[in-house]
Amino acid sequence: MSDFSHGGQIYQFAREQNTPIADALAHILDFSASINPIQPDVDWQAIIRHAQIAVQHYPDSQQQVLKEAIGHRFQLPLEQITLTNGISSAIISLFNELKPDTTLLFTPIYSEYRRAAKRYSDNTIEVIHGFEEGLSESLLQQIHGLTENSVAVLVNPNTPQGHYQSPEALEPLLELLRHKNCWVLVDESFLPFIGFSEHYSVRRQLKHHPKMVILQSLTKYYACPGIRIGALFTAAHALDKMTWPSWPLSVLDEQFVLQALTDPRHEGNTRDFLQTERPRFITALSTCDLIESVEDSMTNFVLVRTRIKAYRLVECLASTNILIRDCENFGLGQYTCRIAIQSTENNHQLVQALHQNRWLMTTEPLLSESK
Ligand SMILES: Cc1ncc(COP(=O)(O)O)c(C=O)c1O
After folding, report:
1. 89 Cα nearest atom in ligand 1
2. pTM for the whole structure
3. What is the mean pLDDT of residues 78-101?
4. Which residues constitute the domain of residue 245?
5. Which is the closest atom of ligand 1 to the Cα of 7?
6. Does residue 350 lie within any of the structural domains?
7. Which of 19, 42, 50, 100 is deepest in the core (most CB within 10 A)?
8. DSSP string, 175-215
9. Which among 193, 217, 224, 323 is the best mutation to test ligand 1's pocket, defined by most ligand atoms within 8 Å of the CB?
10. CA angle, residues 190, 193, 197, in degrees to nearest 5
């Protein structure tokens, strides 16, 4: 596993197995990417009808209608929104623009931040995401050393644990970073699973923090990673001086997301489903001998501690066409995996597969023996 590899590698997996892609997309159960199991209700016929005409023209370079819809959903005016073809690409663009002196990463963290920092930043400091217990002396020292051209990055709710910090809990850290006048990237890609109200988000602080960027992927919540769309939220016009690609989104992306954003039932359906399925799935996973423990989460994925080495469990489940995410490259050791919460039926299949593979406990070194 490389330092920066991701979940959601279904195409690569299909190639390795010599499985036709169409079969893989239809039959492989991919728990390794944390995608909403609830699909928004979109009218594909209408999307295609629009695209058949619109494809002959460049998309709107101002993305006015889509920005209005996103602004409405996230309670922000247009001038505070920049759209990109996915947050992964925005991360690289931002780091390429900023070329930070120092990057301070609160870990564990989405690996694209580590990849971008390694490529574009002179110096990277990783600190364990522990500021909820107050700002430690060593963290204060790290922050003290940041220049105005440094970047601090935190993901909230974070991955792979799904831990969430309220804006009030983050306030002392963000205030300190604001005083340092360095750039602050707050990735809230999984926040819609908690709620859209600005009460949950640091969006309200954007007005006072001209160097803060909120990175909001839309591919997780709207279950569309095959469509590349993400939004950056900032103080008005804060990113205008940076160079952005002229037409980051296609007319198909635009139409899909417009419809997804205006599905009136998506939010309620997602919340109701996860409220029931998450505790049920956590309980079912906890009954599996191969699982040592399951962390509770506020999002659409859970972190599990495994009794055998995670890579062996990943391999074994992959041989039955089930993908889960080994978390070793998050720096979490050899016995952790992230598992997305999917439909009840898929979750049941995973739990069955874990029970069926309990024989691995007799052939593999166990976590208890590694202590
Ligand atoms: C915290 C976080 N931010 C952003 C992304 C990427 O989002 P996108 O699909 O918009 O590139 C991921 C993907 O796993 C993620 O975990």
Report:
1. 11
2. 0.96
3. 97
4. 44-261
5. 14
6. no
7. 100
8. HHHHHHT-EEEEE-TTGGGT-SSGGGSSGGGGGG-TTEEEE
9. 217
10. 100
DSSP symbol at 304: E
Task: Identify the residue whose C-alpha is closest to ligand 1 atom 4.
Answer: 87
Pocket of ligand 1 from Cβ distances under 6 Å: 86-88, 110, 155, 159, 187, 189, 217, 219, 225, 230
Please count the structural domains in the chain. Answer: 1
Look up residue 318 and give its two tokens: 């992959």
Q: What is the pLDDT of residue 323?
A: 96
Tell me the per-residue pLDDT of 193-215, one tens digit each, with 9 for 90 and over: 999 999 999 999 999 999 999 99
CA-closest residue to ligand 1 atom 3: 189
pLDDT of residue 362: 86
pLDDT tens digits, one per residue of 146-175: 999 999 999 999 999 999 999 999 999 999
The CATH number assigned to the domain holding 97 equals 3.40.640.10
Residue at 64 is within a domain: yes
Flag whether 355 is in a domain.
no
Query: At 132, is the pLDDT very low, low, confident or very high (cuts 50, 70, 90)?
Result: low
Give the rounded percent of residues in the chain with a pLDDT score beyond 90.
89
Ligand 1 binding pocket mutation candidate from 110, 159, 188, 298 (most atoms within 8 A of CB): 110
Q: Which residues contact 215 (CB under 8 A, 6 or more apart)?
A: 87, 90, 91, 185, 186, 187, 188, 189, 230, 232
